[in-house]
């Protein structure tokens, strides 16, 4: 899975801690997601999608063989 989370978070002027608070997760979770070391749960993906006002599949991008 690839992610545009860091780019989109920066575009909204949010740091990891601020996004984490809004998404009700830890800062470490945001860090792991940005480093592509964690696949988000559906709930977390939807929360982040709403915060960043982007479709889930524009933030978290699955490659062909992953689906």
Can you walk through the features of this model?
There is one protein chain. The mean pLDDT is 95. This protein has a single domain (2-61), classed as 434 Repressor (Amino-terminal Domain) (Orthogonal Bundle), CATH 1.10.260. Helix 2 (16-23) packs across helix 3 (27-34). It has helices at 5-11, 16-23, 27-34, 42-52, 56-59, and strands at 2-3, 60-61. With 67 residues, the protein is mainly alpha-helical. A two-stranded antiparallel sheet has the order 1-2.
In CATH terms, the superfamily is lambda repressor-like DNA-binding domains
Strand order of the largest sheet: 1-2
Low-confidence stretches: none
Please, what is the average pLDDT?
95
Give the overall shape, derived from the CA principal axes. Answer: globular
Tally the structural domains: 1
Total E-strand runs: 2
- End-to-end Cα distance, whole Å, is 10 Å
Predict the CATH topology.
434 Repressor (Amino-terminal Domain)
Radius of gyration: 11 Å
Q: Label the structural class.
A: mainly alpha
Helical percentage: 55-70%
Instruction: Just give the CATH class.
Output: Mainly Alpha
Strand content: 5-15%
Major sheet = 2 strands, antiparallel
Q: Total helix count?
A: 5
The CATH architecture category equals Orthogonal Bundle
The SSE order reads EHHHHHE
